[in-house]
Amino acid sequence: MTFDHRARREALRAALAERGLEALLVTDLANVRYLSGFTGSNGGLLIDARGEEQSRIATDGRYTTQVAEQSPDLVVLNARGVATALTAFAARQKTRRLGIESHIVTLQQHRALVAAAGQAADQVAFAAPELVPIAGVVELLRVVKDPHEVEALRKAAEIGDKALAALLAKGGVRAGRTELEVARDLESLMLDFGSEGPSFETIVAAGPNSAMPHHRPTEAVLAAGDFVKIDFGAMWLGYHSDMTRTYVLGEPADWQREVYELVLAAQAAGREALKPGVELKSVDAAARDIIDAAGHKDHFDHGLGHAVGLDIHESPALSKLSEGLVPVGSVLTVEPGVYLPGKGGVRIEDTLVVGESENLLLTLTDKALTILEP
Hints:
The protein is of the alpha+beta class. The protein has 10 helices and 19 strands. Helix 7 packs across helix 8 (179-192).
């Protein structure tokens, strides 16, 4: 699968010109990958609004061959300190206004960039560039996914669906097993089906632990009567999937059926409300209002969802505080939950591509209440 990194850089140049910036120093590794295809652990980009020939990618000697293969259309600077090397290069190019990713650059790094810019500017007898803090300019470009990105996300979700189905088919979620054993098995199965790795630390939360939204798996033993909440994702070409399903070991109690059906109804309402051009917060409200009306206002204390892509959590988010409208072509999760401390909790999560007329559901595992043999 081929991604058009050059077109992405051209779109960024236009965005920089609109903001009165001559160049942008890109140090967030997901943004580096999005703009260049480079996947090394040490890399940075200088994207110059004046043209591709002034732009550079920087990495160290460990990645010389890799960067040449992954980013053949960019000139490489060999440096361990990629940010300072690129800043110095920008200064020697007589850049006046250099944007920096202010949500990534620390105060200590900023001081190093100022020093590097000043020293390089002295070499060409020109004023050092103004370092302009700017956050989210690349991330804004990443909101709308192109068809290749959607296919990568679909493939990642397919891997997750297959892995969970295989885990259930072999009785991997049953009484007597630990949360950690279930999580490890699921991650291993994702690898078997082609995942590059888990999108995040797999959540397996059983019994009272399922009442914690982001519980980390422990040696806690699954038991009959437990809710078992599984939140996980696979990666394909760097793109993440994200899905949550909640199961019951053995015949559910009345309260478990009630909570499950409530969350299922809220999730359906959230998915139905997810349409292009509607307010982000209204999607959250569609699901949240159902949970609030059932008396569980205090038991759903996180946002309804978030965008997914090269990062597992991207913008925009779906929450009661979100501003803006749902973009067509964005990929978002819908994941309401109800969590009852000391008893258990349910979360049901899907990932969807927002379409002009209808959304594309990526996570296809059945959401009906599923009772597993204890």
